[in-house]
Specification:
single chain, alpha/beta, Rossmann fold, 39% helix, 18% strand, globular, binds adenosine-5'-triphosphate, binds magnesium ion
Length: 248
């Protein structure tokens, strides 16, 4: 089976979508075939990769998942786009927490090396489905506030999901939008690295305007500004994900 990594944090704007898409590109550049599943009604991952949202969400409704996979303009990266019905599906309550897991299982095991699932900023049914489907959860956190309280809630949701999905574990906490010159960022880093029992990635993603500009060109920062600090951060992260065996 491919490694299934869910990128989750109920806090908004912490870098989930950026991490799902840029890590996908970094892994693809390292020769892996990567599927990005957009499980967020905002469809930011879908549009950021230059893919049109579809009417009916292939990951949660509609026909067989294989028919809903779209090739992106990024070599080695495929996408299951978010559907325009995703918000409604989530609001009315998904019928089961294993819809996405079952659909991914129907893909077979040799088409992709990794599946990255981008979650909305909530711990609702879409995120629960993404956790039920995953081997590992990656948790981006922004270094501009004290994130540990929010993490307690997320880790509780991970533990809950792990009762039905014993494979599930935290793959790593990722510091994003890091500003080394800011005292607060260094304090947050110190706190996260010393107080958290969960693994924390050595790679850190710096705050970098190129990272924010890239999606409007339908590019990852690695393609948009290859020599930028943000691109280096995500290339390093992809390497670390491989070194840690989260993807083989
Ligand atoms: N390292 C970075 N440097 C500068 N800007 C960044 C960086 N990472 C992400 N951003 C920008 O910050 C905003 C939030 O990032 P992103 O969309 O990845 O977060 P998110 O957690 O997916 O948000 P949401 O919870 O709404 O889904 C975006 O405009 C993105 O381009
Ligand atoms: Mg997002």
């Amino acid at each position: 089976m491919p490694a299934i990594l869910t990128v989750a944090n109920q806090k908004g704007g912490v870098g989930k979508t950026t991490t799902a898409t840029c890590l996908a590109h970094g892994l693809a550049l390292a020769g892996r075939r990567v599927l990005v599943v957009d499980a967020d009604p905002q469809a930011n991952a879908t549009s950021g990769m230059g893919v049109e949202p579809v009417a009916s969400s292939p990951a949660f409704a509609g026909g067989p998942l294989a028919g809903g996979i779209v090739e992106t303009p990024w070599p080695g990266v495929w996408c299951v786009p978010a559907g325009l019905d995703l918000q409604r599906l989530a609001a009315q309550g998904l019928s089961s927490a294993t819809l996405l897991r079952d659909r991914l299982a129907s893909l077979g095991d040799d088409r992709f090396d990794a599946v990255l699932i981008d979650c909305p900023p909530s711990l609702g049914g879409l995120t629960q489905n993404a956790l039920a489907a995953a081997d590992r959860v990656l948790v981006p956190i922004q270094c501009e506030y004290y994130p540990l309280e929010g993490l307690v809630q997320l880790l509780g949701a991970v533990r809950h999901a792990a009762r039905a999905n014993p494979r599930l574990a935290v793959g790593g906490v990722l510091l994003t939008m890091f500003e080394p010159a800011a005292d607060l960022a260094r304090e947050v880093e110190q706190e996260v690295r010393t107080k958290l029992d969960e693994p924390v990635f050595t790679s850190v993603i710096p705050r970098d305007a190129a990272v924010a500009e890239a999606p409007s060109h339908c590019l990852s920062v690695i393609a948009y500004a290859p020599r930028s600090p943000g691109a280096r951060g995500y290339v390093d992260l992809a390497q670390e994900v491989l070194e840690r065996g989260l993807v083989t």
